Amino acid sequence: MNRWLAVILVSLYASVAYAAPDAPGELSRPWLVYLVQNTHTDVGYTRPQAEMLPEHLRFIDEALDCCDLTDDYPEDAKFRWTCEAAWTVREYFHRRPASQIERFKRRVKEGRIEVTGMFVNMSEITTEAGLAASLQPIREFKDAGIPVKLAMQNDVNGVAWCLVDYFQPIGVKYLTMGINKTRSLLPFDVPTAFWWESPSGSRMLAFRPDHYHLGNALKIHEGKLDVFEASLLKYLRDLERRQYAFDRIPIQYSGYHQDNAPPAIGTCDLVKAWNAKHARPHLRLATASEFMDDVAKNEGARLPVYRQAWPDWWTDGFGSAARETAASREAHADMLATQGLLAMASLLSAKLPADAPAKAMGVQEAVTFYDEHTFGSSVSINDPTSESTVVQWGQKGSYAWDAAKQAGMLREEAIGAVQPLIPRTAEPTLVVFNTLNWPRSGPAMVFIDHELLGKGAKGQFIDTQTHGEVPAQAVYDRPEGGYWVVWAKDIPPLGCRTYRIRKGEGPRTPPPGPDPAAGAIENAWYRLTLDAGTGSVVSLIDKDLGRELIDKDGPWRLGQFIYERLETGNREFRREALRRTSVRNVSLKPGSGGPVWRSVLVQADLDGAEPGSARVEIRLYETEKRIELHFDIRKLPVREPEGLYVAFPFSWPDGKIVYEAQGGMVSPGENQIHRSASDWQTVQNFAAVRSEAGQIIWGSVGTPLVQFGDLNCGKWQTAAKIEKPYVFSWPMNNYWYTNFNATQAGQFKWSYYLTSTADASNAAATRFGWGSQVPLVARALPPVKGETAGSGIGRGNPVSLLQADVGNLLLVEARPAWHDKGVILHWREVEGKPATIDLMKQGFAKRLKSADEVNVLEETTKADCKTLSFAPYEVKFVRLNLD
Length: 883
Prior knowledge:
This protein is an alpha+beta fold and about 900 residues long. It folds into four domains: about 1-15 and about 30-315, Glycoside hydrolase 38, N terminal domain (7-stranded beta/alpha barrel, Alpha-Beta Barrel), CATH 3.20.110.10; about 430-435 and about 440-510 and about 775-780, Immunoglobulin-like (Sandwich), CATH 2.60.40; about 520-775, Beta-galactosidase, Chain A, domain 5 (Distorted Sandwich), CATH 2.70.98.30; about 805-883, Immunoglobulin-like, CATH 2.60.40.2220. It has a nine-stranded antiparallel sheet. Strands 22-21-27-34-33-30 form a six-stranded antiparallel sheet, with no helix packed on it. A hairpin with a 4-residue loop joins strand 19 (about 535-540) and strand 20 (about 545-550). The longest helix has about 30 residues, at about 385-420. The termini are far apart.
């Protein structure tokens, strides 16, 4: 029974129900049909993830055999195969004998097999740096003489905007998107080719075909000429009726009508028989890029241009595993800091572990396999306790936890590399590192052994340059030590600052937080009022700007829990069946007090959670214009479809919502592909409510899913319509009927950060969002006998390896090179203005032998650069060759 259900669900999920009307008469166009066979790479779904790679390596072996078997066929009927995922080809190169690799390369050279550029089919959970890492197999292919000129993203209905900037300089000219429109809207009325541009104006030729199993829906895999003839002619007539632009069309299919299907040779005989019978339509077994070459050559000059993002509808499913999704996002952010530490160590002449780049790539790969689009078993919803469901989710979730473990160990190696550079004395030392490209002040979390400070003791942190004490407060203790937050001020870009750790007089007696019963809570920048009934913020006044930041007339309050249940008795999604509740039995009490922040605590009951387990800590910072909200619930396992939101009903005159996607800023409903994800979005580091008067900047590390303007589930808007500048964070849901998790349970913690400013620039939002997302790295070091000067960091002088603070440039990532020696700096211009960096005036210049502009694969595009000049929104990579 379970196997039968799996087959039915695979058919529902991975096929297209094509029902064109009968249209008698002859075709009006001289059709050429490119039939493109590939296997759709689901890492799981049909079988456990551990079985996928062996299967796909076998598929490539069989594809080579299929080529051999059809060498004497007519040219258009010869077997051809497109490798959908670069991952499987890379592994094939690593796991097959040289003779088999040469056989593969010969077929590629002949045009019988094509290698494409996407590592796997990716969701929007991943980041710019993560995507850059995922493309590195293309370098290996190019070095082996295998060209890669097309990227193929199947099943998923969105794709990262930054990929245009990455692909164009490495020769990947084409993108084809075999979208599965399940639970989404399909962009464009017919299959459409267009020039897709990044914010910088880089472009590639993109094509939205019909479903990646369209050929199977037309019964091609059955090999029956009469059956396929009837369905194909009906499809082509319908394209003519709908005014499809060309007289040629690609149709993707698999050897069998399922995901992860092996190749099949039957279509070769079908095509041979068809072409012997018909002059037109003519069929050709083709690789994916053949059609794109045709369009580029013959139609390129008249194609439309879209400089728009392509957000993904399916990312909502990642809310079915909030804890693992948060772990993935945190691993990405932590790796940015860790890679920056490794880069700093290199630039300061420290000796890195030889395998550090390989270990970093291992972390990126682990998190990529969590971020890719396949989540779990085909029967994950209707049979959640089955072996298939349990095993596949165990393996899927393990990618996130493996990334977290590996990232933690690599961080320790990075700190070990820079630790000898730190000056030490007879007093314990705290060192704080900033891996971004502007001076940062912010909270640095550090664990300090009781051996260094004493259990329950007051702590003093003395800046070794200014000799002044910086704000710090204890967060919580463990038996052997405690966690402290130190307000690290003016940590220089790609640099660090040191502090002396001293024990204060008397025991540590932290003051309590403000009493919420006393009325409004305020600091130097904000005045905040809580509602006793909901525990949420009913008024938030920016004292600098003299402005109320919350819509007091809206149905929800800032920070309010909203629990949503679909009351249909099944998973048939109807908007009118959604029922929403909020908290009850609310209690308010003082939280923590201290020089960094003061907080209040909210505790309440919430549907879907253990009684009294819905908790919020609202922190008003004393050190900067900043508010944080820290949430904590103990979720009950609920099988019925449900969702959980947190409301941020902002008020801002003429406020318009923008958010950071992978590689650029998106205004929902405006600069995004029509019918791409509109009911919800995936925020990378921040969203903003903005006008000429300034902006409110908001973000979250672990919960990237949001709905803007309203609670939108069930709307299926062709374009986002945002009537009010509301942000609804969407940390949890289980609305899918397959693949994603049916339920989740246990304690889950997540948080948000926000500020408001009269500066309406992208640069201001970028610095707050990235500065909140990428942690300052802190380490407490024990005392030493006498004194050590360190190596490369002079005592009392903060080190900075970047002196040019160019406000409109973002250092996306600094890291050791993967392919050659040196350090890679990955930059993006964020404001739409030109910018220049003088590499010879940076803190690393004394170690700089030369610098080269490179592409995402670290191939040199411009040698011996002294300066870097950026056009608006341009992305650049530079390799620093060190002496």
